[in-house]
Amino acid sequence: MRFRPLPDIPIQVGDALPFTVFDRTGKALLVKGNVIDSDLMLVRLQERGMVEDGVGSLRQEVGRPDEPRPRIVEERQTVRLRDAQEELTLIHRDLQAGTAQDATARVSALAVQLRDAYEQDPDQAMGLLQLEATDHRLSRRLMHAAVLTQVLALPSGLPADHRLSLMCAALTFDVALAPMSEQLAAQTTPLSEAQWRAIQSHTLESVDLLQRCGVNDPIWLEAVRDHHERVDGTGYPRGLRGETVSIEARILGIVDIYSAMIRPRAYRDAQPSRVALRDIFLERGQRIDERLAMMFIKELGVYPPGTMVKLANGEIAVAVRRTTDGAHPQLRCVIGRDGAPLAYPQIRDSRNPETAISEIVSASQYRSGLGSLNVLWARGATAG
């Protein structure tokens, strides 16, 4: 039996399939006549589906007139984030070259896009970027940082315009390091004297790059300049103390520490989120604002959305939603105890001893078996 990729699908939830859809191994995903009962199922079919050679297009089989493919919000989220990453990389390049005279508008547009994604579904926005923490590109890390700022900015009661300025700062706070970010991530030797000087001066140089391209928002610029200041006066570039460091810069400093620690470097593995949060806890009230540190830990929980975990029964799951009890997130099992990826993520109860979380695992180890990440947050996941 020979197969070919699933043809264009002008079909929606509630429709019955006119023919059987297989995966790439020839295993039936959904038999002819079965109803597509969720967005999750539709995304999986579009992603993995194959049909026998000789089967006509689904459009012809269903007999529908030409119409656009149904809009699946969850599937569009990753596309939007990918486009945002590409745009941010271009913005960083133009800032470096001094040609981004529309920098304020371009960065603000990205910040609005990420803000809207967070407000639509905070757990999905954080989870998608947490799962991509194996990607060491600067643009991806700063997008994650921008989303994470909202974890503190909203409960801190920052006005909407301040929150947006803070997100803009998060998208640009390391722009002066952009040319050397790849090298630093891959480097296993100690920093050279020139690299050390570049790191120590990058906050002021980032501000300079932004100002030369027309950015004049004082909240944005101050957060970029002071995100390495520490409340005990040990930070740089000015050695500020306590509340002389703006709340926006204090938030950005915490987010910077966390987002850097959970990403791998050539000389170390990525740190599990709970290790990064533990280090923030240990620094509270010393180098890091105690109230903000405790708020950040409480808001993220022990297993932030996007954390991959191994269960007591040997399955691999993803924490997809926070709960009031931060130690027991909502889970979706993605890899069975036999090591094979599941066709559809299945709900798991982390309070059940059999499916309790036994350890955090590296997303890079299992990422290839996940397929589309959006299905983890789509409606219709099943209990199994």
Topology, please?
Layout: E1 3-5, E2 21-22, E3 28-30, H1 39-48, E4 50-52, H2 58-62, H3 73-97, H4 103-120, H5 122-131, H6 138-153, H7 160-172, H8 181-186, H9 193-212, H10 218-226, H11 247-261, H12 273-283, H13 290-300, E5 308-311, E6 316-321, E7 330-335, E8 341-348, E9 357-360, H14 363-366, E10 382-383
Parallel strand pairs: 8-10
Antiparallel strand pairs: 1-4, 2-3, 5-6, 5-9, 6-7, 7-8
Give the N-terminus to C-terminus distance in angstroms. 30 Å
**What is the CATH homology-level superfamily of the largest domain?**
Hypothetical protein af1432
As a percent range, the share of strand residues is: 5-15%
Alpha carbon gyration radius? 23 Å
Question: Would you tell me the overall average pLDDT?
Answer: 84
Which geometry do the CA atoms define? globular
Biggest sheet, strands in spatial order? 9-5-6-7-8-10
CATH class of the largest domain: Mainly Alpha
Strand count, sense and barrel status of the largest sheet are: 6 strands, mixed
Low-confidence stretches are 56-75
Approximately how much helix is present in the residues?
Answer: 40-55%
The number of E-state strands comes to 10
SSE series: EEEHEHHHHHHHHHHHHEEEEEHE
Tally of distinct domains? 3
Question: How many helices?
Answer: 14
Provide the CATH architecture of the largest domain.
Orthogonal Bundle
- Derived from helix and strand composition plus strand pairing, the structural class reads alpha+beta
CATH fold type of the largest domain: Hypothetical protein af1432
**What would you call the quaternary organization?**
single chain
